[in-house]
Amino acid sequence: SLLQEILDNVTPKLENMSLPSVVSLLGNQPIQRRRSSLIRGLSPGQDQIIEEVTNDDEVKGSEYKSKRDARPEGSDSLVDEFDQEDLNKVTPHHDRVTQKPILLWDWSTESSQTDVLHGKADRQTSCGGKVCRGSLMNTAPANKVLTRRQAALQAADFMKQYYEEVKDHEAPTATYSERLQEVLTKLEESGTYTLTQDELTWGARTAWRNAPRCPARMIWKNLQVFDKRDVFSTKEMFSTLVEHLEFSFNSGNIRPAVTIFRGREGGTEPRVWNSLLVAYAGYKQRDGSVVGDPAQEEFTKFCQSLGWSGKGGMFDFLPLVVSDEDGEPNFQEIPLELQQQLRVKIKHTSIKAINDLNLEWFGLPAVSSMMLELGGVQFPASPFTGWYQVTEIANRDLLDCQRYNLLLPLGTAMNLDTTTNTSLWKDEVALELNRAVLYSFKEAGVSIV
């Protein structure tokens, strides 16, 4: 049969080659310039890589072209796309660049370990074999719809990983061959398939485990996964997001969680338009300055175009903005009681200049501009919450010049010599603000690292 021919060709190859790692979090923010990118580190323009290496229309060679021309007229099945010769041509781009393991040296312990996971990436990362570029912030979106061939390749690889790592999830009821056959059948019939509850949970947790930029991923098995694929209306989406925030914040004792709404199917999809579920507005002034968070200036304008009106302050919570299958964005405020719980007033134990600024920040980072991609199924709306690292707030959010830009105002208020860098005034400001953030979160009983 056609399906049996797929299994005969695909399964042996999966056992012997490094297919793309298909558990990933992808940038998906539709309107922000500062769109989140691949959590693995995709450089601008490189989101085309997967198409170059998996789309058979891009494979060069007269023999392959002749073989395609020899297909039965009207044939467009997965069998035609998954023959043995085609799979021999499908190799992750990064593997073609370097297949050698990378030695990682820890100078603090004078020990080393070898990384091989990079060779399984389905998109080329920004890092090379000599220089780590993991700290670079990427801004290219990666939200293109997968081709059927890409979805099938990723589904096959996902199932292989799922059945290999049985110790990390419930035992499957079907065998690997049976499940793969079922998945490929669904993909051929409708272009998508439904992940089981356990596949979804394991996949989401593994996506976190495979995120190199996240230091908290060591507890990936504790990630709470909320399966909300049965939610269709914006009203239900709003209530679901509020419930997520309340669960994860947990009165300050933060619990990492991800909520997964239904995946892409037939051109319709749910969307969370916020880059962060919890964020402060940024109001552009006539003189070009911004009151609030400049990073949210564009989204603030968008919310205002929907009819939302903020108070014009430094720390005004933005509303939640979501859309269902009709694509029309709707907004709703975060409940006031929850807003008050999330606020953390920033105070220093001895420096009046910091206290006089009446600074605050929210205690729960909730990334909502990233798409979860599991086994060839894309979930555009899958907000994730964890906890803050102190430098994210003190250095990145409050001091960076493109954000609240408080470095010079604080240095001046602290009577430091800001005329020369040799006075180390910038270091002193950053150090004391970090101390203030740590102290304030501890006093408020909110988790932070």
Written overview of the protein:
The protein is α+β, with helices and mostly antiparallel strands. The protein has 16 helices and 16 strands. The strands form six sheets. Strands 4-5-16-13 form a four-stranded mixed sheet, sandwiched between helices. A three-stranded antiparallel sheet has the order 1-14-15.
Distance between the termini: 56 Å
What number is the mean pLDDT?
81
| Main sheet: strands, sense, barrel | 4 strands, mixed
Number of helices: 16
Rg calculated over all Cα atoms = 24 Å
Give the number of DSSP strands. 16
Hey, roughly how much beta strand do the residues contain?
5-15%
**Uncertain regions spanning at least 5 consecutive residues:** 16-71, 83-98
List the strand order in the largest sheet. Answer: 4-5-16-13
**SS-derived structural category:** alpha+beta
Please tell me what the overall shape is.
Answer: globular
Keywords:
449 residues; alpha+beta; four-stranded mixed beta sheet; three-stranded antiparallel beta sheet; 16 strands; 13% strand; globular
In short:
The chain is α+β, with helices and mostly antiparallel strands. It is 36% helix and 13% strand.
What does the secondary structure layout of this molecule look like, with pairings?
Layout lengths: L1 H15 L7 E4 L21 H6 L7 H8 L8 H4 L2 H6 L3 H5 L4 E5 L4 E5 L32 H17 L11 H15 L6 H13 L14 E5 L5 H16 L7 E5 L9 E2 L9 E3 L5 E3 L4 H9 L14 E4 L6 E3 L3 H7 E3 L6 H4 L4 E3 L3 E2 L2 E5 L2 E3 L4 E2 L4 H10 L7 H7 L11 H20 L5
Helix pairs in contact: 1-8, 7-8, 14-16, 15-16
